[in-house]
Amino acid sequence: MGDRLPSLCHGRKTDAARPETGRTSEKPHALTTKPLLDATGVAKNYGAVAALRNASLSVLPGEVHALMGANGAGKSTLVKILTGAIRADAGRILIRGEARDVRSPAAARRAGLLPVYQEPALIPDLDVLSNLRLTGTPVEPFRAWVRELGIPDLDIREMARDIPLAVLRVLDLARALAVEPDVLLLDEMTAALPANLAEKVLEVVRRQGDSGRAVIFISHRFVEISALCDRATVLRDGQTVGVVDIEPGVEEKIVELMLGARIEKTKVATRAAGQAAAAPARPRLGVRNLRVGTKLNDVSFDLADGEVAGVIALEGQGQDELFAALAGSIRPSGGTIEVGGQPARFGHPLDAIRAGIAYVPGDRAEALAMQRSVRENIALPFSAALRHWGPIAMGRERATVLDAIKRLQIDTRAQGEVQRLSGGNQQKVTIARWIAADARTILCFDPTRGIDVGTKQEIYKLLRELAGQGKSVLFYTSELEEVQRVCDRVIVIFGGRVVDVFPVELADEPALMRAAYGLPRDAKEDVGILADPTQPSSPSPAGGTAP
Amino acid sequence: MSSAATVPQAPSFGRRLKRFMADRPIVPLVILLVALVVILQILRPGIVNERWIANTVKFAIPLAILAGCQTMTMLTGGIDLSVGTVATMSAFIMATQIVNQDPTVAFLLAMTPAVLIGLVNGIGVGVFRVHPLIMTLGTSLIGTGFLQVYQRTVIASGAKIPDFLNWLGTGVSFGFPNALLLFIPVAVFIVFTLNRTGFGRLLYAVGDNERATRLSGVRYWQVILALYILSSLLAGITGLLYIGLIKAPSLSLAEPLVLPSVAAAVIGGTSIFGGRGGYAGTIVGALILTVLTTLLTILQMPEGARRMLFGAIVLLVTAAYLRITEDR
Q1: Are the Cβ atoms of B197 and A384 closer than 8 angstroms?
Q2: B22 to chain A, minimum CA–CA distance in Å?
């Protein structure tokens, strides 16, 4: 694909091995008016699901361009298409005005487009130098960039796995900068960085823009975006819904664009009709100052009997760790969990299960034995404890399982193997398991992700029914509208802390979205309540990604 | 997933046949077994008689029990290569200790290495997460080494085969090999364990998705420890049976059975990646391999050629079987 590359002077033969420095100076200046990267009408379907319908992104030379969108808006899909990780079904990508078929990461790289992802990309079992050679990165420019980025004493003979995460991310960036890409794509670049490194990184990114190249910058930190970016493209439901200039006060506009016209409050009634406001009850689960590693920093809340509490957070704000700790899969590094008023310690999921806490993970493949039958999957927790390893009371098990199947209306035509079921039915099996086990507290992590609308409705109804029976449900969702359908209360987590708790009446989508981005509840009155004091112009602290 | 939803017209006969085979994987195996017996009868008319059948069954039983060990460990995604050594050790210790010891004491001494090796395998695989292949190969080497040391200490005492084991291993009553008295309860036990007990469920589930079992409260190491001890115990018992059949204690008595035991489980439809399979298929697999050995023996080929053919046939059968049953 590198054959027709007249506008790029480094050409395909040199691409990775010896990118020539000083390419910038040869760049024809007439191009500054034309976009460096121009993607239009990009669409991508996964089966029946449209991840992208009609996305466009136009990046000018010399600009730092923010790409924004709520969970599931299609950001990561667009990024993957631009960087050649997946192929688009439709759409056109022009680089320097020329149509390019970016069909592999290598092709994207040849075209001058280089990503730095959130996950460190160095191979852990090689030293830094070998990693550079593997990707054909020139060593000297790399070293220069590393120094520039605030790490003066890097030993390039060190194994990548011995290097701390924050430094690895900086090395990824330096590696990308060393080959001088025309368009640098940074995904949550500052997320894992301490303040001093983050500052250096932002400085370097800013200079990239000044040098006539371009940077596509993905971040949830309004602070950074307003300090750094020239324009922002906002995606919603797989479409580009707006391109805005970054100026003071643009946050509100961006939030509005991300939400679109879906701001009517029709949903409150749906829930209220099914369930009158739950009577205040004693707490079933108490979480006190819970901390897990660096992700979850201090979370406290109560979950009452008969209550569905929603959890809202952007991707990677510590919600995964919260649920895993409550389920006994990982050990918290601080704080306490109380069950029925008694402190509890979970060393293994079995301890949590014994305390009546069941965990329905977001990824069904994590919860199901795919080659086994519906029945075996539902009955799995029954056999877990040593004393239940003996003969199974088949009749009783059958009755319990059938009961749960009926209750969830699982389509059992293909019950011999769970992998033959549809996604929605698989999800029902993971929930049915805990209904059969009669768990008192159910932790549902995004249970409706990727399933059909009908099944979603059934799951909403089921969760309300469970609450009606006095069970308590903690419900993380990446779809804001679900809050109104299911929850009594919403806990918003940002940067590993609870930043707000809404009664459901107040939890409309704009309010939740603002809170999820760490913006204060009423922007006009409370500006700066959570904001970085060094950035008074923009009311927002740090955050993570929501693709 | 596909067939239930997207087949408006009646599927072709070939497809229906495949589907039938896929749902009852034992059927093609039995067909293959019968075919092999028929070929044998054609090549040597009259060979297939009551005596031959009893003999075949007698030789298939030790293989089938060891293959049972493989079936259970393979269901969890593991393998137990120490079964040969464990069987040899229990046989050798039994034959040498019976000379001076009370039978019960000799039996207990014979089963001791089985328990120990199973325990070490279980701890290594379940707690320290050593790959089962390496773990069981390692304990197998240690066991073999121990046996060589042990042999020197008992060289004076000599060896003998207890009468009971002799009777069990070679005897035939009313046309049935006595070994069936041991095998039938063992087979029933394994089948029942796999299908009707919590432990059996966990073996399948752990092999299918370990993470899912953990989230359901299963402690992996408990399952694995129990499994490898059980596997070793069965291997130890097989050793006692085998010495009654072969009647010549040696340091590599049951070693030749190890790879066929894996092959029997694989031919029988147990997935080496875990989560799929069962013991009924394995039993037929063991019979197929035993008949195949007879077939190749009467062809009067040189030993080398026979082995090559044996290996090639095992590969072919396994590949064909997977093609038939993995129709999803």
Answers
A1: no
A2: 12
CB contacts of A383 in chain B (<8 Å) are: 198-199, 201-202, 205, 218
pTM (whole model) above 0.80: no
Q: Per DSSP, what are the bridge partners of residue B145?
A: none
The verdict on residue B169 lying in a domain is: yes
Whether residue B268 contacts residue B282, with contact meaning beta carbons closer than 8 Å, is answered with yes
Give the model confidence (pLDDT) of A138-187 as tens digits: 889 999 999 888 888 888 888 888 888 888 888 999 999 998 888 999 98
In-domain check, residue B5: no
Our CA-based measurement puts residue B277 at a distance from the nearest CA of chain A, in whole angstroms, of 11
Give me the interface pTM, i.e. the ipTM: 0.85
Yes or no, beta carbons of A421 and B213 under 8 Å apart: no
Set of chain B residues whose Cβ sits within 8 Å of the Cβ of A379? 201
The total of structural domains in chain B comes to 1
CA of A176 to nearest chain B CA: how many angstroms apart?
36
Q: Are strands A37-46 and A49-59 parallel, antiparallel or unpaired?
A: antiparallel
The answer to whether residues A361 and A405 touch, using CB atoms and an 8 Å cutoff, is no
Strand partners, A39: A57, A93
For chain A, give me the number of helices (H) and strands (E)?
Answer: 20, 20
Q: pLDDT digit string (tens) for A425-454?
A: 899 999 999 999 999 999 999 888 777 777
User: What whole-number distance in Å separates Cα of residue A518 and Cα of residue B324?
Assistant: 57
Q: Which two tokens stand for residue A506?
A: 């107040």
Question: Please, what sign has the CA dihedral across residues A404, A408, A412, A416?
Answer: negative
In Å, how far is A424's CA from the nearest CA of chain B?
A: 13
CATH code: domain of residue B80:
1.10.3470
Of B4, B209, B276, the CB nearest to A368: B209
Nearest residue in B to A390, CA atom: B197
Q: Is residue B9 part of a domain?
A: no
Cβ burial of B9 (10 Å; 0-12, 13-18, 19+) is: exposed
Structure tokens at B17: 């046949």
Q: Which domain range does residue B182 map to?
A: 16-325
Assigned domain for B282 exists? yes
